[in-house]
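fyi for ur records
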Amino acid sequence: MEIDNDEIIIRNWCSTSPIVRRSDLGWHDSDYEDAETHNPKGVFDFYWKHCFSMVFYYPLENNFYELFMEGEPFKFWRVNKKNDWNGEWVCEQISWNEHEEGDVLYTFDDDTDLWELIKINGKPIGDVLAESLIVEINY
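which gave:
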């Protein structure tokens, strides 16, 4: 997919890949293929309904969020930033070995329509994900 204005969104993402461009945000072709749909809600529903946890970075708020699908009720939280983060690389704000439960924003069960429920500062999750770097999807 070619984007006319593929501006740089983040200049200090991580040491191995410092630049994040607008085209890096949102779902990737492989996500659409896995979900067998090009509908963003369909991709989102595919992952969480199949118990995939998801971590994404929302640059507009400089926060990581996690949809945590282990245990019940399931949870959606803002991932805690490390106290010793030196401020150099954005990706080093959180611990990648274990994402400690942060500020829990929502708890839910498998019948919940998260697409309609989850909002960050009033913005629907679909819009947030389109403007986020989806960094981890785990089963």
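Residues 40-49 form the longest helix (10 residues). thats all i got for now
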